[in-house]
User: What shape does this take?
Amino acid sequence: MGHLFVAQGDLTKLACDAIVIPCDEKLNVNKAWMPILLADTPMVGPWLQITGTANAYGVIDLPVVGSRRVCAFVSPYAGYSAPNEPVDRLWTALTDVDQRLERGARRPRPLIGIPLVGTGDGGLARRRGEVIAELLERHRSEPLRADLALILADPRDFAAVQTRREPRDWPELDDVLRATADELGRLAADKELSLFLGAGVSRPAGLPGWADLLELLAREAGTECPPLEDGFEKAATPIKEKLGADYVPAMQKLVDAREHAVGHALLAGLRVDQMVTTNFDPCLELALESSHRSGFRVLARELAEGGKPWLLKLHGDIRQPESLVLDSEDVERHKQDGAALRGVVQSLLLTSHLLFVDFSFKDEDFLNLAEAVTKVRNSAVCGSSQPVGTALALTQSDADSVDLDDLGTVVMLESGPDDAARKLEIFLDRLGWAAATHHPVAAEYLLDGRYESALSDEDRRLRDLLSELMDRADAATRASSGWSRVASCLRDLGAGDAELAAST
Assistant: This one.
């Protein structure tokens, strides 16, 4: 049975096997889909116009751009009259696409990316809560073979979907994994969680792990890859020397991605303020650009700015090739020039709960700095028995490699590493749901009229009470020094500028 992932972001940047989008009966599609269509797709008025013939399921197969299949399904030109109608058409199309997709090299099940249909040009913009409810219930009752990724550009859509999901929507996880994901989600919502990402997170986006990277670089250099037992940096040294001036272009070809995996989108959606990765690739940044509209900083390409989230690329950034740490010479240079950056990781270990996602604990430099943190914790007068972080390991052997007493481990183990990697993504999806539903802006759709028709009785009572508050707030009330705080809260709950115009 396929899983339904939910993330905020840009569907055109998702690494997946297929993307399914709506078009009208004249084959017009929204211009937002330009990145996944042929560059010469013509504009007709405000629309892009595709070509093709719909099959019996209403599906039009479009030319492949990059590695993803793109399909359109035909929506009525006049729009939908009921919230089940776009879901019916979407599911008919997905059933056809699902049957024709084969397992790709990236994941044990195909992944199909979908938008929230019917709520834009489909005419149900003010009934989007009902469309969301129909979509979630359809997946529960008629799951597909493939996994689905519902990618939502609007943060209020994201909040509304997460609120309407239920604990039963993760049957793939046992009680322990669900409870662990929920606890980590609460830490994320309370701004007590930081992230540390390893190379495994980027594999579903088609990027190589460390061993594969060295093999591919050696092939590019026309040489054999040295044994890896003595460390990746020692094996990389002769390869880098052999590549010479071709080193940077070779690295860029292998890791300068244009798409991110669903795992990156799920992690970006946690809205944590402090993130670290040893990866060179830009995948997490691509996901953050879609979910962190107010901006974020990449260290040390940029300096941190007060209040903005930041991502530390501990081993360098492919967009800044001179910063890459790959061979022995790079490692020695990094020990001197990057001491302050390693100090940032130590600070996170001391001041927050650090979540390690698919990170190999064989990095000697990291183990040394973690050992120093352990000594500080052990010498503290008011010590804590709580672990400094949690490592999400794919298999038991991965967990056994974590030789740090201060770190808890969670194992995803299934029948093989591919299945375990998919289970990790599902775990992150549950974690993201827990974070979203505990976040201070978990109900940012509440006062937005587009979701009114599907509010629960409890939400409707609160909305009516807050609406009355806004209506009754006179000039004297708005002159209070506390009104700006109230107005800020109302904005976080979805009040629009027009409704608050008198209070600003």
Q: What stands out?
A: The radius of gyration is 24 Å.
